[in-house]
Amino acid sequence: MTSETSTDGVTEQSFSLGEIPGVLFTPRGATGPRPLILMGHGGGQHKKAPGVLAGAHRFAADGGFAVVAIDAPNHGDRPKDEQFIQFAGAMRARMAAGEDPAELVAAMHDLLAGQAVDDWQAVVTAVQGLGHVGVGPVGYWGVSMGCGLGVQLIAAEPRVRAAVLGLLGVHELVGAAARVTVPVQFLVQWDDTRVPRDQAFALFEALGSGDKTLHANPGDHGGIPAHETDHALRFFARHLG
Amino acid sequence: MTSETSTDGVTEQSFSLGEIPGVLFTPRGATGPRPLILMGHGGGQHKKAPGVLAGAHRFAADGGFAVVAIDAPNHGDRPKDEQFIQFAGAMRARMAAGEDPAELVAAMHDLLAGQAVDDWQAVVTAVQGLGHVGVGPVGYWGVSMGCGLGVQLIAAEPRVRAAVLGLLGVHELVGAAARVTVPVQFLVQWDDTRVPRDQAFALFEALGSGDKTLHANPGDHGGIPAHETDHALRFFARHLG
Description:
Two copies of one chain form a homodimer. Chain A is an alpha/beta fold. Chain A has one domain (3-166, 224-233): Rossmann fold, CATH 3.40.50.1820. Chain A is 40% helix and 23% strand. The first copy, chain A, is built from seven helices and nine strands; from the N terminus they run E-E-E-E-H-E-H-H-E-H-E-H-E-H-E-H. In chain A, strands 1-2-3-5-4-6-7-8-9 form a nine-stranded mixed sheet, with helices on both faces. The longest helix of chain A has 26 residues, at 102-127. The radius of gyration of chain A is 17 Å and the shape is globular. The interface between A and B is medium-sized, with 19 and 19 residues. Strand 9 (212-217) of chain A pairs antiparallel with strand 9 of chain B, so a sheet runs across the interface.
């Protein structure tokens, strides 16, 4: 642990686990075991991006959960490798040219997924060793790149028991999605200019889960309405509580 | 009022308002004004169909709402007229032949809508005159035929301030849907054999509401999962509370 602060009833503890920078959010003064929610950020974002922070505080303060967010490989405080820099440049060029970057985005997620899955598995084991987290049920929240890496994680990691995913198309993920069998709440932005609606529907359809619900709201990629945080909190309470 | 019973903390009062048979659900011992939810049943169903009863009890017991359900024209305890009997026969024949009855269904809703809107407007005025209902905000819940008649009601009736709708395609409803501007939660069954998914998406898209969310779940027309009642309760609490 490298630092600790408390705001609005939530304690934030920054940590490093080997190469992985992370933040653990718990209700202030928490003791004893509790469910744990992993939060995966979007592409180009980091462990304390506004969407991650808002959800983490809500889940800890109102749900009593422990929440952990880490920087994905090549994101936030982590070094960028040459292959990632080339990918990111190619994506920017394709978007600037008005072309659909979806295939490149999917290939980049695939490039990051192996390391990201290893990271999350190590982080779950480490934080569940802490007295105020303990070994309880685990949930996952992540949209866009956080969904792409999350699908790969959940396909590989049986400790994850419920997930909020979305804002991503099916590219490259059909196989992994079929191995996701836990309850899923899947977010779609109806007017998403980065993820065609049909591609997002196809990923929802590819999920192997028997218990899955798609929530679609008007607006573009970044515009998930606040009431979805409320839905996510109740979803996690139902499945991890 | 023709009869009164109480179960699990909810009082059911059966009534007739002119030709309209209905049931009013309120929390046992309720006094004073409260929000009112109108529940419209599906085609071939009636005011005490299982889906209506389950929702009404939940909304009254856990939300403190007043809930009123009535038999739609030509349904439940109401007489059937010749035109309706012919329509229903034609629909059954078309479904038995494996053909899509959607256009006939839409035409039937249109046939019933004028009377249904008049009925609901009279019922709202009447039950809001009771001391344990009073003049508070009004919500509407109805899927399938309950959605078709509900869209026409909400387009015409400014007292309705939020609605749960769904399980219906856009046929004939484009104009009325555009006049629906209140918050809507819209239910889709992903594997609905009676309503093609694209038709349901088109009705969601046609709604004039700025605040609208689509919830899709796996399963056929009748298989809305129980957790959607929980979502509906919180939606009404947020918008009518």
